[in-house]
Amino acid sequence: MNGGQVAEKVVVGTLNETTKPLGIGYNPIDGGNWFDGALDELEIYNYALSAVEVAGLFTAQATFPGTPTTLVAHYSLNGDGTDETQFHNDATLDAAAFAVANRHGWGSNALSGAATADNSVALQSDYTTISFWVKPNSFPGSGEVFLLSNGGWQERWKISLPNHAKPVFTTYATSCCSDMDSGAGNELQVGVWSHLVMVHNGTEDKIFLNGVLANTKLTGGALHKTKHPLGIGYDPIDNGSFFDGAIDDVQIYNVALSDSEIADLYDAQNPSPVVSGDLVAYYAFSGNGRDETAYENHASGVNLTGDRFDKSNRAASFDGASTESTQPTPPQLNSIHTTLSFWAKPNSIPATGEVFLASFGGWQERWKVSLPDHAKPVWTTNNSGGISDMDSGAGNELQVGVWTHLVFVHDGAKDLIYMDGVQVAEKVVVGTLNNTTKVLGIGYNPIDGGNWFDGALDEVQIYKVALTASEIADLFAAQSVPPVVVDNETPGAPLNLKGEVSFTNVQLSWLPATDNVGVVAYNVYQDGAIIATTENTDYYVSGLTPLTDYVFGVSALDAEGNESLKTTLGITSGPDETPDIIPPTVPGNLAGNAASNSVLLTWEESTDNTIVAGYVILVDGVLADTVSGITLSYFVSGLDPLTLYTFEVYAFDLAGNDSAPAEVTISTTEPIDAGEPGLVAHYPFEGNANDATPYLNHGVIGGNPVFETATHPFGGQNIKFDGQQDSVLAPNAVHLISDYTTVSFWIRVDQVSADAEAYVLDFGHWDERWKISLPQHLKIVWTTSGNNVQFPLFISDMDSGDGNEMVIGFWWYVTMIHDGTSDIIYVNGQQANIKPVDTELNSTARPLCFGSNPIEGEQYFTGALDNVKIYNKALTGEEVLKLFETGVTGIEELNSALLGYIQDVFPNPATDVLTVLHSLPANQPLLLRVFDMQGRQVDQIQYSQNEVSAGQFTLNVGDYTQGMYSLNFVLGGKNLGSLKFNKH
Fold first, then answer.
1. What is the mean pLDDT of the chain?
2. If you write DSSP's letter for every residue of 514-551 in order, what string do you get?
3. Number of folded domains in the chain?
4. pTM for the predicted model, two decimal places
5. Tell me: the pLDDT tens digits for 543-553?
6. 3-state class percentages of the chain: helix first, strand second, coil last, to nearest 5
7. What is the pLDDT of residues 479-533, one digit of tens each?
8. Which domain holds residue 637?
9. How far, in Å, CA of 230 to CA of 236, rounded?
10. What's the CATH number where 594 sits?
11. Are residues 762 and 800 in the same domain?
12. Those residues with Cβ within 8 angstroms of residue 676's Cβ, 6 or more apart along the chain or in another chain
């Protein structure tokens, strides 16, 4: 034992031979007799070693092969559980664990959640020092949570955090157990990083807080050994007591550090490390999503593919539907200037709109790079001088399937774009980039979600300075050179791929592949897409859709990135382990908002033991539609006026279980004449926020906006928002829902918003129907959310274009149109911009809001609005011009009976006298009634047959108050209809 002979017995004879197997750790003949412990360095010789040889063998194997050191474990927890000491006792992160920013604000440099490292003899010293940083998010309501444990109170030591917030050090030395907290005044603080050190030196236990001794307790003896693993953030023995917070830089020593050494350790770890060089992020995507800089802000969600040199798993892959790579907020990227460099290969160009290649703060706060449907990459920056965007210019489109090197620069004076080392575009953009707290997103829009890129990206580099043209040319040249090929031979394909199905899970296994140098990993594919890369020869796939066909594949990789052919296997998943027979609950509070020809249904979400897959809508027992499980409203059109309808909605889950239906019977209404065909809302803001149409969908004023005399051509009053919580909110109404729409209004901007954009009008927001916003560049933006056969949700935005800024202090008449094929913006009656958008607008159950963001809040508008009109149709250009010039959509909008009679109404707006030119028949008298926009009759004039025969009449309106009015023509007792005019 340990090199020395301890027993002997005379046993004469030669050993017998056997055909039985060699068993290690158990009885291979009878079974059982399992050993509880560890074995290592098992060697069998075919002769008897001498005592000297045995002693020499022990000496050789007992000698520590590494460099003697007191640091026996070091977990930086920079996105993984790597032990940075020579012992390499790496920890495994819990499935729910994730990387967070550390005490220096560096993303992915600390751990939230639990991790486990194997028991190690290196940790089993008589004395110890445990050092780590901790930031609690909360304290336990009762009891305690574990910060660290190696053997727990039962065998060795643990560090816990009770509800009194004073960390506790528990040791098992001479006897069990000794525990001690950090003492009064040494409580941890929620949201604050603290440095803790626990020491057992053979005579006492010590706790240090931020380098200072906090408490001591006499505890003699050497620590007990343990067979249990090292747990970080939880109790690894009872698998509980999970800590809510973050832990970083766990270090364990096999000696008791002195007070001065602990103070020095704190002083060394407390300041932010100084990183030299201008490169602040580098994602090479060489088999992983690691940030190759010292900041180690590693990416999550990375799928890998071949790079520009056809080396497998050397670039990031994005599927255009859901794949995205996210890096926690990296403060080191918030420099005043920047350079972003990467390689891109699109698999497709978006049919409409744009996809995001990279974003840090987006256009809203800092910068983004996007790829619109014209294939020219767009560089958008948000800086102290405002928001700017610029594309790469004609002839510089990205090509499908082709790798291109892209570099985007902001140098404080200009934005620049380079392609393949050559500058292709520049724009004068003076100012320093704004800072952001948003995450860095690659391949998608990390702020709003979506906008997924379909293609591959590689060598993403971000600099904190603006590189020069020569530096960019050199960078392109260096990265264009293929790597030196040491090995270009691909491994053999993995053989004997098998899949064992267990309900909705599959255990894949295969034989090891061969290679001329060596196989380092295997790619696992599901339906053609890589879902994992593993060093093992098996992989467990869970959570598949029940009873669904899948094709799995496995390929082998070597260190050079050579990939073998795939071995594939078709598998059908099984049923749910426990068949789901529980239906969803009934949709709650089914209600309908009725109009003459339509009803907007709304309901509260159903719940299910798994997931609600969707809802079915029936009208009078006939299927109308099926919508997704997140849709809680539905617009039913094509109904008859004044008719009772019965509507039913029921929920269903993935197992095909249907809820009982919710039912409501609603009558459609009588058609309403709003004075202009298609007009469904009109807010003239004459001292209130009332809707002047007969729909009477009045707004409620929030904050403290004021009404003032309007200085635009139509006069009257307008509403003024001060940008400080002023807004108007009108209820959702079914008459506002239509496939196409026109929104028209007067606007005066008084101040540029401090936010990236201010909300002018919003109905359903950008994600459900439409919004109108004003970015800092003052080009007003029209955003629509629609649907077509290809896209159930298609979001488009467009600004009014250069030269059509809403210059501060001036009135502008703006008209936004969605006509089913395009979004169109008019300014002062003239078309300013147009964008193809082949959709029908989505419905919404949200309210109509003026002057702020009604969903996320804030983003208040500073300025004035007046005469907001909403139509349930798309106006023509002629109608828009007439609307701008007269306040109504023109003669064509009069009631049909008046169409042939009224020749002109002027002046409109009128101040004292309104003149009407007409060709009404002179054989009957005319009664002219005047109504205000609240429907009240304010005047009437009777004209005789002789007066009618004159072909014109005048109306004295000087005593009328300012606002909109309606002239109602009754000829010989027959109501011909109405027309409107505006009184200054």
1. 92
2. --SS-EEEEEEEETTEEEEEESSSEEEE--PPTT-EEE
3. 6
4. 0.53
5. 898 878 999 99
6. 10, 40, 50
7. 999 988 888 899 999 999 999 999 899 999 999 999 999 999 999 999 998 888 8
8. 588-667
9. 7
10. 2.60.40.10
11. yes
12. 871, 888, 889, 893, 980
